[in-house]
Specification:
This protein has 158 residues and is of the alpha+beta class. It has a single domain, classed as Gcn5-related N-acetyltransferase (GNAT) (Aminopeptidase, 3-Layer(aba) Sandwich). It has four helices and five strands, in the order E-H-H-E-E-E-H-E-H. A five-stranded mixed sheet has the order 1-2-3-4-5, sandwiched between helices. Strand 2 and strand 3 form a beta hairpin. The longest helix is centred in the C-terminal third of the chain and has 15 residues.
Length: 158
């Protein structure tokens, strides 16, 4: 990270932070290589901000949201513990390669440790070489799995 770059503010957001959540969604739309299909209605986003086990963390730099992640706490049935599934993580392209993704993951690690969560994981598409390189560079280990998608019918209107 360059000497002249100010320190980012990294924090978890919740109910009352709808505008910054919408800003984070905009970051995801610009950061992801795959297109993001629309944005849910504000009332649904507010539900997510208030949902137990929903973790939304933002990176603010130069007065604006430039990155963040969403994750879900998932209780295990086989032992009294919880895992954390990182659903989305992204940094605006013009702010990538400055250590912000690493700082974001370090913040998540502290969050997980404070909640008694030992394990957390993220998926990456095989074609997304940048994400795979990033996860390896910060100490992630790969596990060969096959991901299956199912649908129960039309999406909920939101």
């Amino acid at each position: 990270m360059g000497k002249d770059m100010q320190q980012p503010e990294i924090r978890r957001i919740g109910l009352g932070d709808l505008s910054v959540f919408i800003d984070l969604v905009g970051v995801f739309q610009k950061a992801f290589t795959a297109p993001v299909e629309g944005v849910a209605h504000s009332s649904y986003l507010n539900e997510l901000l208030d949902r137990e086990g929903m973790v939304i963390i933002i990176v603010v730099l130069e007065g604006r949201v430039v990155g963040g992640l969403t994750a879900h706490e998932m209780p295990r049935w086989d032992r009294p513990s919880t895992e954390l599934y990182i659903y989305d993580i992204g940094i605006l392209p013009e702010f990538q390669r400055r250590g912000l993704g690493r700082k974001l993951m370090e913040f998540l690690q502290v969050y997980a440790r404070n909640r008694g969560i030992r394990d957390y994981f993220v998926e990456a598409n095989l074609e997304d070489r940048g994400a795979i390189s990033f996860y390896r560079a910060i100490g992630g280990s790969t596990e060969p799995v096959v991901h299956f998608n199912f649908t129960s019918g039309p999406d909920r209107e939101g």
